[in-house]
Here is the input.
Amino acid sequence: MRDVFVAAVHTIKFGKYLDRSIKDLAAETVLTCLIEAGLGKQDIQALWFSNSNWGYARGQDAIRGQVALRPIGIEGIPITNVENACAGGSTAFHHAWMGVASGLYDVTMAVGAEKLHLPNRYAVFAGFLGDLDIEDFPNIISNISMYAMNEEDKNMMRAHVRKYAGHGRSGGKKKRKKIGERLTDLRDMYKVYRRLCDLLGTDTMKKVRREFAGDHSPFMDVYGFAARQHMKKYGSTIEQLAAVASKNHFHSSLNPNAQYTFTVTPEEVLADRMVTWPFTRAMCAPVGDGAASAILCDEDTVQRLGLGTRAVRIRASVLGSGRERSFDDVDIGERLSRIAYERAGLGPEDIDLAEVHDATAYGELHQTEALGFCPEGEGGVFAQSGATKLGGSIPINTSGGLESRGHPIGASGLAQLHELVTQLRGEAGARQVEGARIALAENGGGALGQEEAAMCIHILEGPKR
Here is the structure.
């Protein structure tokens, strides 16, 4: 295997693009990335295209990359479509790395594009069911109650809500919709319900309706369950989760590509609308649209293009799948990071900064432990100490993370890598990590049993300057 370098990276600003298509978003990031690398479309020898929801939401299955990229003249070359849930973008990057590392290609590209803001928002969330074992969905629904809050959890949540009532950014409550909006919601909900009845069966959908009743998602309860287990076992607190979320909002306020560019204090995080105990809205990743890309090449191409002072070396690229395990067994992040550290010839103590998958604030807390940045059980204390904030011992999610930079599924992993490459080049501006040389990205997706169905770990090394 030969050395592989990132020649160029790009991401658009994540957010809401109701008037733009997947083709539009992909074109913007691809064409800008090519300009940065000093390459033409004809120089890309193979490309991997990541998208998660285009098929369910718009019916564009099977040949998404070919459809998205032909309008800008990328055709004829091998284009592989990648679906790996939230890990899709980093999976595309991994395969682009393999194409160059193996010697099969000298220049490859990874692209991720996603639109989650759609007229029917229920169709978006229904599409997320594909992140699970859909054939086993009747059993999943039957068993999902085990992750729900018990009376002790509910009492703690109620006490928290009473304590912070009226102190949030929006009063801590959902705004009541007008009757026209409610009627539209009912129509959209019914459309999705009928479609899911065809896919899953009416009996299963009756169970889904019961589990989804109320003001929470049972799937968020799964994340909440893991956080609650950590709190009970190690004494971590909702205040520590608020410190994570507040820190990420601060980081994103320095990132012009972030979906959210406003700061939120820990107190405001705690006072925000409760999703499920112990998560408030500010602790959870938003829905968003976006696209990101990266161009990879071998060392000879780096020299030919004169990119010696900008090309970032890929020290390790690891893709793995989840395993059937109990909550107490070794987690996929810990298992794969050990492989990545070994391949890179490095350890967690050598990492200067990291981007980790934080669909919720607990995700970041957990990954700081799994990746070896702090001892098990101390992720909350570590975050509250300021160690993971800019200026701390290991800044994490300097982009703002999924919670604040945004999480357009197929593009998220590549956006992580864009942030790390920008940091390692010393081009991150106000959020620059001083002396950054080695960086790590962790990106997980889907759920099978107790852990992510897929995960990528990448370790990068900055250019010599």
Summary: Residues 5-117+286-461 form a domain with the Peroxisomal Thiolase; Chain A, domain 1 fold (CATH 3.40.47.10). The two ends are 25 Å apart (CA to CA). Residues 253 and 261 are 4 Å apart (CA to CA). The chain is about 40% helix and 15% strand.
